[in-house]
UniProtKB/TrEMBL annotation:
Annotated source species: Blastococcus carthaginiensis
Domain of life the protein comes from: Bacteria
Name under which the protein is recorded: SDR family oxidoreductase
Pfam families associated with the record: adh_short_C2 (PF13561)
PANTHER family per the UniProt record, alphabetical: 3-OXOACYL-(ACYL-CARRIER-PROTEIN) REDUCTASE, NADPH-DEPENDENT REDUCTASE BACG
Length: 248
């Protein structure tokens, strides 16, 4: 299936590994020029090398205010503009209500909410001006079904979903779609580091009885960027093998 993306330009944040990398790889396969970012120069350069096809890379620590906007600006300079934005960031530290202090919320919101806001502020005006654009943010299934011990992530990503839904309504008349994807458990290096041997029990709770494949996740994001998905906006799409048991 031709997604109609050949020649488009994408900025994919936090894409040196995991789901961000899988998304960048899916877009490259569709003929998209891609710029990625990561906080580690060696990992960013290596990831861009594996992606090939002239992929550019930027060092950006999205925990720092302004780094998200700088990443987009540099991507625009490298490619002559940005048609597709995939906001993404590492999750904030784990913890429960009693373990997390009030001072930890602001950094979590910067990382998992405001970094995306800043990237959108940098990228969306150009999309509106040209009459075409795609924003597909990587959030978490925790938005629908809060995950125990992740109160910071649950809080920040829920707020981000509200921002994205509002933005989608405002820019829809300009040919720009804004959606998010909500991953459950996918077979990434970070997941195995976090869960360790406990991942087996978690997989048993997934109706699909398996971890998600990063390449399938990337393909779903690429579809939301496609011409065929031009009427999909304001959606928050769970990619979780059936983990979410709610009716919405």
């Amino acid at each position: 299936m031709d997604l109609g993306l050949d020649g488009r330009r994408a900025a994919v944040a936090a894409a040196t590994g995991g789901l961000g990398y899988a998304t960048a790889a899916a877009l490259v396969t569709e003929g998209v020029r891609v710029t990625i970012c990561g906080s580690d120069p060696a990992r960013a350069e290596a990831a861009a090398g594996r992606l090939g096809a002239g992929t550019a890379w930027v060092v950006a620590d999205l925990a720092d205010p302004g780094e998200g906007e700088r990443f987009v600006r540099l991507a625009q300079e490298a490619m002559g503009g940005v048609d597709i934005l995939v906001p993404n960031a590492p999750g904030p530290p784990a913890g429960t209500f009693t373990q997390v202090g009030a001072d930890q919320y602001a950094p979590a919101l910067e990382l998992s909410l405001l970094s995306t806001v800043r990237m959108c502020l940098a990228a969306v005006p150009g999309m509106r001006e040209q009459g075409w654009g795609r924003v597909v943010a990587i959030t978490s299934i925790a938005v629908r079904q809060p995950v125990p011990n992740l109160i910071l992530s649950n809080t920040a990503r829920a707020g981000l979903t509200g921002f994205l839904k509002t933005l989608a309504r405002e820019v829809a008349p300009d040919g720009v779609t804004v959606n998010s994807v909500q991953p459950g458990l996918h077979d990434t290096e970070r997941l195995r580091q976090v869960w360790g041997d406990g991942i087996t029990a978690e997989v048993a709770r997934i109706p699909a009885r398996s971890l998600g494949r990063p390449e399938d996740f990337g393909a779903a994001v690429a579809f939301l960027c496609s011409e065929s998905a031009r009427y999909i906006t304001g959606a928050a799409v769970p990619l979780d093998g059936g983990m979410n048991q709610g009716l919405q």
